[in-house]
Design goal:
The structure is a homotetramer. Chain A is an alpha+beta fold. Chain A has a single domain, classed as Chorismate synthase AroC (Chorismate synthase, AroC fold, 4-Layer Sandwich). In chain A, strands 1-2-3-7-4 form a 5-stranded antiparallel β-sheet, covered by helices on one side. The two termini of chain A are about 30 Å apart. The relative contact order of chain A is 0.17. The interface between C and D is large, with 120 and 120 residues.
């Protein structure tokens, strides 16, 4: 009760930071779809460590291997198991942490829950567990690309106090994705990106870290995905985003600013747009009453600064003794550039699941 | 795949705004606990319409009836079914809406999904569906009160631009709850509450509506609840909150402000507090790595202004024709006072589920 | 974890023998299907007590009421809640049993599990809990009748040592059902039925009870329903049947006799039947490798004799004291006639669930 | 919706006969238990091909590798992934079958469902998928052995018409297991075993196959496992058994013979056995009202003869053309000896799941 997500397109995530392998199993992926490692690897490459000077220098190739669920490069309806073997297992780096609870990490809480933990690299609580999410997300995106026009783009819109300008004209989604991949931080506005990178480099030198905001856009969403109660599409997406390590806040459409509106200012007015029903504004963020309305889904996701610092910090050990902690070694001064593909993948898992389930909503379509 | 929530303590929600009855079934409630309608009714009374001049004047007694799962006023381990019959079923009020998609409501999206809907009172998409959540939440809170010291308090911290002052000293949780119940808006600071109520009354007269923010505090949370991957405690709470109608944003601990911090400022430093491990700050909001750390859980939940207005608005009908909509009748000018018990209930459902599951985490405790 | 069944078309069963009401909730029933109590009541009438002189004389009308999930007599995609209020609640009849564990009943095991139980009429362990199954089964059958040609017929093929003759030519399914309803025991062969009824009446006079076998036939099953691993169609059906009170054995196709065959005798040979692929024999019982092959599904379900007897029996009470038990009052001398609609309903729930899920198996059909 | 089983102790099974690897993931295994491959391998060895002259001669070492979920040889509460790589992948053996539907195999039904299949070695429908079940079963048995005195023993009680004699005195469970492992067929009565093996060898020479019956005994079952409705312990076991390839029938306690009893003969009378409550007979097979009563669980499971024969058989191909099929190569003339550990494992998965869930049944124990 924890490592699986999705109702029909179900993903079970496994693996620890320094275990043998990480990955996922996908259940109920439809049969007959072409699928090879080449469909998965590009997103994993966007997530992998060591991809630029502003990410952790841990060396991992993160090569994915499909070990079940396909035959002659096509899905056969059985569970798809994808493995990424851990390479750079410097277990010895971590003996120092064996008894120490790192501040704002999961060491203490994991120990409290299970009474036993892998102290190397965060064990199960490591962000390496997002490998399974990203791998499954690539399969989800492939299904959606075959069956719909849905497109996912996440980008870094803020790092600490450097924000993408309100005046920056957001390009169409394909160009947005392209613009993001042109810099290390994955912010489509190159000038802002430059400043963000500069800040991160400076912060890294100081042994410190910074947080920020990722904005997610999903385009061409068919109307009708989601549910009116509990499994509302926005609730499922909020869950998926908040389940990403370091996320502290999630908002959709007008989000927290909605609190300040009057209803007469906030309502999205429907109109007939050459035969199609659309809304003049999109404060709903593409979801009304828990169900997609066909407008773009737009969300902001807030990430705290990385908890791992090179700066010395006070903390306690397992015995409750107050000790000083000084982390040597590799970590991300800012998780956001690597979180971009994770946000997209997490969203894709929700969307494909609801897309498939929606096929069974109306008896006339069955 | 939509109307159930929880893994072990599972709640299935049913009912429509103007159907025969609404309510819920709880599966896997432990046997042998005293339970009668008197345990449930107080929270339903805090949620029910017509409770004050700033809520909708729809008249509903919302009396709960337990029809299964108890014997001689004790639970017997079988599903607990709770029913609230709809009383004030003015179906005729709604024929006017039959073909019209109300702006920022679920009429359009429900129709797109299911091809058929109850157009009276929002049907399944009505906030009356939260009755099942509140009823189940009272059972959840009872279990937790018997087995832990956990306490839940939600309060209105902002209505439009009127915020509870940073200088207001938040009282301890029992007094906080009491202070909230002393006014119609459920803001513990009586002076701020007065201003909020004034604003809502004014807005109501204008036929308009306002949004706001509810803050949730959970005290005395045992360390160890939640999971490291996917079903993280914060992710489950974010899902539960975002599943409440009108919610557009959720944050925990430092939330969106975390984006602006440096790691060295943001980390919660552990210390030995007379033998117990605590953190000096609580930017984590009581959850680290998806698992509770024993500090208070603190969340903010943003609500948009009610979509139903008395002011005339343009929209479209089922044929796609642009029409003007003028809603007569009863609605909440601000959903927040009635949402307070819903927020608490939604949180309690997550907490009791994770509390029970946590009993099976460590083999030494089994 | 116990009272729900089905993956997509999910049924949650609730209620106790002498509680306020029994029934079920169906989740994920497709929207837009006409549905009223008139679709449900006929099967409940076939199940209800007091329907003939060979069933218990407990008086219950077992009138079903749909309280959610429909609007203007059509499903709207939200959970369908169906209630049957208990009428003949002679709670006082049962105080005698309060402390006594009736032999081969669930009194002892329920108490061991939950530490507390409703001792009236078996409480949750009563066969009255099959009301929810039968009600849901009627909805399942309606969906299947609209979308497929599938037909369900169960009949009593054996009572104690009186078996339907191997020479009796089984009629086509519609006539089979009709023939069953022409007698109290629901055996299509009227002469055998007469003997069965005679035996039951004799047994009843002696204060004793008898067991027997129900045969289930499902016709016009589309090929492709089920799964290769775990949720095999035969495994799901075996679960559904064994979950009916008093069932002690389940077999499909050649069943237990398969143990005695050689492979060369047992294999079902495929042939081309005017363009369609069929098998010459049906020892598989319509399921191969866990998936339906388009032949009739044929199962036998063995029922033990009713545990409740008028004959005095030794047993123990809650204190462990050995006591004599003499049950006065009403009970079925043979559960089989009333179990026929339960078997059909339990099968229909499996079939509709797999039918719906199968729509998502092949990417070309999505 | 098919490859997972269990509610809390959840096992997801993956892999195909000639894919890269087979195995399983276990979710929610409690943390802190010692676990290495050495705990798993012995049962896999009892299941593996080529173990004796009466099993298939396919050469597979079936060495298990744990790739996640443990740290320093102890479970850490995260998903346990176990892999068995396929070695003897003679894919080329199977091109002959590419278009042919083998009689009483899953080729036809799999193709009907998914529209695409792995035709090598049965693909996903191969009995090799039971590797995941057996591996997970060993973990389940380990937990139960640490926390209870529960013991599992399955044995071959019948092969075609050779049955273990009613006069054979069944030894106590440890000796029963030992006696089974002293011969190739796993029948504890050595004389009967000799005859069974002789028959299988003769059948194998003829290119034919035989079926039989496996009896399962579970000893020292705590009272209270299971549920009164749907997820009854017997229903869950029936599902687990019927999900094993080649199983056509399942019975518990008196099973099919129960149909022939009178109630007064069939009821299990309770008595006080030196302070403990027991039943004088065990026609219930250890389960009453869906919940274990503390007596031994006893089940019979009927297996059909292997569908693969060396004898030529008529069948059809994908085009519907009638063709003759002659299978060269390796197959089991009788699946029973290798099915013994599968039956035990499948039962253990049900029992551990219900054991863990039962910890949460009574509020006094939480």
């Amino acid at each position: 009760m924890g490592s699986s997500t999705g109702k029909l397109f179900k993903v079970t995530n496994f693996g620890e930071s320094h275990g043998v392998a990480l990955g996922c199993i996908i259940e109920n992926c439809p049969a007959g779809m072409e699928l090879t490692e080449a469909d998965i690897q590009p997103d994993l490459d966007r997530r992998k460590p060591g991809q630029s000077k502003i990410t952790t220098q841990r060396k991992e190739e993160d090569q994915v291997k499909i070990v079940s669920g396909t035959f002659e490069n096509k899905t056969i309806g059985s569970p798809i198991t994808m493995l990424v073997y851990n390479g750079d297992q410097r277990g010895k780096d971590y003996t120092y942490f064996k008894d120490i609870y790192r501040p704002s990490h999961a060491d203490y809480t994991y120990q409290q829950k299970y009474g036993f933990r892998s102290y190397v690299g965060g064990g199960r609580s490591s962000a390496r567990a997002t490998i399974g999410t990203v791998a499954a997300g690539s399969v989800a995106k492939k299904i959606l690309s075959l069956k719909t026009s849905m497109k996912f783009a996440a980008y870094v819109s803020q790092v600490k106090d450097i924000k993408i300008s309100d005046l920056y004209p957001l390009p169409e989604i394909d160009k947005l994705q392209q613009a993001c991949e042109e810099n290390m931080i994955r912010c489509p506005d190159q000038e802002t990106a430059r400043k963000m990178i500069e800040l991160i480099e400076q912060t890294s030198k100081e042994g410190d870290s910074v947080g920020g905001i990722i904005t997610l856009v999903i385009e061409n969403v068919p109307a009708g995905l989601g549910n009116p109660v509990y499994d509302r599409l926005d609730a499922l997406l909020a869950y998926a985003m908040m389940a990403i390590p370091a996320v502290k806040g999630v908002e959709i459409g007008s989000g927290f600013s909605s609190a300040q509106y009057k209803g007469s200012e906030h309502n999205d007015i429907f109109f007939n747009d050459k035969g199609a029903i659309h809304t003049r504004t999109n404060r709903s963020g593409g979801i009304q009453g828990g169900i997609s309305n066909g407008e773009n889904i737009v969300m902001n996701i807030a990430f705290k600064p990385t908890a791992t610092l090179s700066i010395e910090q006070p903390t306690v050990n397992e015995k409750g003794e107050e000790v000083m902690l000084k982390v040597r070694g590799r970590h991300d001064p800012c998780v956001l550039p690597r979180a971009v593909p994770i946000v997209e993948a997490a969203a894709a898992l929700v969307m494909v699941d609801q897309y498939l389930l929606n096929k069974l909503a109306d008896i006339r379509n069955i």
